């Protein structure tokens, strides 16, 4: 097989894996959007915050350490213990639920029946607040996150492909884990939304507040639940991204990559978020591989947005989005 | 109820028997001296009336009389500044609308509040939410008890869909339905909750004559078949008089009449409110 084709195949595979990670972030957006009609700009920052908290807890870091030291002149940084990954994840999840409660209590509850654009603006505010809050709480240095997920070259794939094709594909174990996790997450979310009482109530609230109240659904409960689930998805995304590239504040920028993903897949479709993520992942890797060298590279920075732009022109609702029907 | 709409009243807490032989039970909801203000505007002024088990109770009045406000008070969307509500024998504290719904008071809205993105069946199924007791994990895994529960709830929903003759649109998204059918789906969703009191906010508003006749028939059938207590608001006098057992008449937030359709029809205040009085 020609070498170029083999390279292209490897690039495609890696693109798929990268796409899964985009899809993980996009999922959080879709979920909140479907459930509450809010486009949650803070989803990426929530992933960052979750990852920061997770690392902080695992390493026994003192929250607000810098602040405490600055005020009291103390020199405390660590509690001096280490928390195992699984327990730290559970604690982090509890913090994300508390965050969900706080977001509803202090922000969203007061914006019932407001225009979507106002809710959107509120989430922008939330994003900046959370970024600053995370910085204050855990510090801004780049941290290493290792919850025990396998990392590095998958030697089985490397060997198998080498024996079959004479060229070993490089696939990161972490990417494979991420794919499995994303698949499980999607199945869980779909089952939750479609087949459970709470899921049905969630869809009802997204559709019509008054009607939801009239069938006995507590809006506050559902909102806290939705933000908690979004927090959970953010935590999963945060773990994956953090394990891959370290927990750093540029993590919140990956949220922006979720935008073109959503435009491709449709803002209201969970499968759409996955497929959109994969298309963006594969597309930008292949484009960089094939066209990049001709135009000086760095196409990964803009390819996704251009693709999204093209989609907006020809299919504004995305691949899987609800068809836009208007009765006249 | 009879064709001429007459009922025979009997004294006492134990209800009365209508002229067509339906037994009306005791008081299920009593409104006592309800006053509702929005800032300086008095929407409801010191109104008392009761709703008895099994009856069709209408609240009528000209536009702006405070009918919808009254319905919103009963369903917990508004909270009156004065007065109290006795529901099933005990005083009802101020409640959120969803708590009222869980207590067995279902309602429809004047401007239709349906889940537009869902199918008719899903909409009706939301009415069963409060009957689902199994936990999240059981439901997600479609486990024994959860499955039985879902099937039972589904049966109730399907029975109501059959009853209201909307089988053919079961799987249609509500947003595609015409107005009259949407009204019927909303009724189905409210009925699915098997309410103790069913509140209908202008069920006939914006309908043509044929649709009105259909809706009237369904309201009577629901009351007859399930024994549901119904309180409805309507400003089409003709329809109300044919439909209801007892009528409260409101005007400018005050109660100006209360009784059987015949009694109300001959009430001078009511006639004045509807036809206007000569000011000389």
TrEMBL record, chain A:
The chain crosses the membrane at residues 12-33, 45-64, 84-104, 116-134, 176-196, 217-241, 261-282, 294-314. GO terms for biological process: amino acid transport. InterPro entries: ABC_transp_permease, BCAA_transport_permease. It is a multi-pass membrane protein. Pfam families: BPD_transp_2 (PF02653). One of its GO terms (cellular component) is plasma membrane. Its main location: membrane. It is found in: Cell membrane. Keywords: Amino-acid transport, Cell membrane, Membrane, Transmembrane, Transmembrane helix, Transport. GO terms for molecular function: transmembrane transporter activity. Belongs to the binding-protein-dependent transport system permease family. LivHM subfamily. PANTHER family: ABC TRANSPORTER PERMEASE PROTEIN, BRANCHED-CHAIN AMINO ACID TRANSPORT SYSTEM PERMEASE PROTEIN LIVH. This is Branched-chain amino acid ABC transporter permease. It comes from Pseudooceanicola pacificus.
């Amino acid at each position: 097989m020609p070498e170029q084709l083999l390279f292209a195949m490897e690039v495609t595979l890696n693109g798929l894996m990268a796409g899964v990670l985009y899809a993980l972030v996009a999922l959080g957006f879709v979920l909140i959007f479907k459930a509450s009609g809010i486009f949650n700009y803070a989803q990426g920052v929530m992933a960052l915050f979750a990852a920061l908290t997770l690392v902080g807890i695992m390493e026994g870091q003192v929250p607000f350490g810098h602040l405490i030291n600055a005020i009291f002149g103390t020199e405390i940084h660590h509690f001096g213990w280490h928390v195992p990954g699984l327990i730290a994840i559970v604690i982090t999840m509890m913090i994300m639920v508390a965050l969900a409660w706080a977001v509803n209590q202090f922000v969203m509850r007061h914006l019932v029946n407001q225009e979507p654009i106002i809710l959107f603006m509120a989430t922008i505010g939330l994003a900046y607040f959370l970024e600053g809050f995370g910085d204050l709480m855990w510090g801004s240095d780049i941290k290493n996150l290792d919850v025990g997920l396998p990392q590095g070259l998958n030697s089985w794939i490397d060997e198998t492909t080498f024996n079959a094709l004479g060229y070993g594909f490089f696939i990161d174990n972490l990417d494979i884990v991420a794919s499995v996790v994303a698949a499980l997450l999607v199945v869980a979310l779909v089952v939750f939304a479609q087949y459970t009482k709470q899921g049905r109530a969630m869809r009802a609230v997204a559709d019509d507040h008054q009607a939801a109240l009239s069938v006995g659904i507590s809006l506050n409960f559902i909102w806290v639940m939705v933000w908690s689930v979004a927090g959970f998805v953010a935590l999963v995304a945060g773990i994956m991204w953090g394990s891959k590239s370290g927990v750093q504040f540029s993590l919140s920028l990956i949220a922006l990559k979720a935008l073109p993903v959503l435009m491709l897949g449709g803002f209201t479709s969970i499968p759409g978020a996955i497929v959109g993520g994969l298309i963006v992942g594969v597309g930008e890797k292949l484009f960089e591989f094939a066209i990049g060298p001709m135009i000086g590279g760095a196409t990964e920075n803009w390819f996704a947005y251009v693709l999204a732009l093209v989609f907006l022109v020809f299919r504004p609702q995305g691949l899987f989005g609800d068809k836009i029907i208007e009765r006249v | 109820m009879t064709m001429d709409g007459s009922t025979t009243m009997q004294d006492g807490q134990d209800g009365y028997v209508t002229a067509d032989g339906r037994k009306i039970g005791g008081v299920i909801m009593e409104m006592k001296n309800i006053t509702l203000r929005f800032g300086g505007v008095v929407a409801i002024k010191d109104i008392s009336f009761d709703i008895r088990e099994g009856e069709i109770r209408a609240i009528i009045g000209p536009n702006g009389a405070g009918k919808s406000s009254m319905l919103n008070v009963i369903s917990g969307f508004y909270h009156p500044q004065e007065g109290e509500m006795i529901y099933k024998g005990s005083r009802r504290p101020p409640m959120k609308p969803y708590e009222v719904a869980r207590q067995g008071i279902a309602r429809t809205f004047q401007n239709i509040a349906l889940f537009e993105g869902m199918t008719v069946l899903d909409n009706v199924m939301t009415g069963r939410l409060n009957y689902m007791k199994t936990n999240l994990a059981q439901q997600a895994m479609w486990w024994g008890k959860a499955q039985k529960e879902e099937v039972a709830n589904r049966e109730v929903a399907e029975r109501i869909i059959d009853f209201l003759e909307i089988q053919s649109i079961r799987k249609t998204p509500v947003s595609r339905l015409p107005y009259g059918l949407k009204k019927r789906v909303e009724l189905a969703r409210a009925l699915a909750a098997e309410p103790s009191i069913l509140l209908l906010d202008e069920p006939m508003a914006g309908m043509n004559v044929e649709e009105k006749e259909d809706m009237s028939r369904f309201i009577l059938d629901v009351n007859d078949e399930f024994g549901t207590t119904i309180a409805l608001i309507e400003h089409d006098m003709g329809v109300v008089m044919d439909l209801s057992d007892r009528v409260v008449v409101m005007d400018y937030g005050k109660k100006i009449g209360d009784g059987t359709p015949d009694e109300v029809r001959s009430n001078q205040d009511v006639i004045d409110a509807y036809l206007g009085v000569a000011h000389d």
